[in-house]
Design goal:
5-stranded mixed beta sheet; alpha+beta; 5 helices; 5 strands; Nonspecific Lipid-transfer Protein, Chain A; 48% helix
Length: 130
């Protein structure tokens, strides 16, 4: 795996892990999580992972696929994925430009956007600038 793809995979892991950690300390985030139900499959470059949101509970796995996801997010270009995970571009822009393909339940994608905003807010002080 090349360095850029590895860095993107690490950012992906941080994003998935941070959902669990933020849910422990932020009640507004917990409320947003309560509204999200479903299985999300990610395909990013040559790696993949999934998330499960169920009745306020959350789990995830890297390097795995889940059967019958409700939503699949596909980011073939790791540079675009890296920019998305760093908050340099948003999911809507990536989707509208064709860099992000979404298959399945778009309502889940919309609810996921709210969680992403929380994650980026928490990451703001530690994100690289520039």
């Amino acid at each position: 795996m090349e360095k850029n793809e590895f860095q993107t995979k690490m950012l992906f892991y941080i994003m998935l892990e941070s959902i669990e950690e933020i849910s422990k300390v932020d009640e507004d985030f917990q409320d947003e999580m309560e509204d999200l139900e479903g299985k999300i499959q990610w395909k990013v470059g040559n790696f993949k992972g999934y998330q499960i949101f169920e009745k306020g509970k959350y789990s995830f796995k890297i390097d795995a696929e889940i059967e019958e996801p409700d939503l699949t997010m596909i980011l073939p270009d790791v540079d675009v994925a890296k920019s998305l995970f760093l908050g340099e571009i948003d999911g809507t822009s990536a989707y509208m430009s064709g860099d992000l393909t979404i298959e399945g339940n778009l309502q889940i994608a919309m609810a996921y956007t709210a969680l992403s905003d929380f994650i980026l807010e928490y990451m703001e002080p530690i994100r690289p600038s520039g």
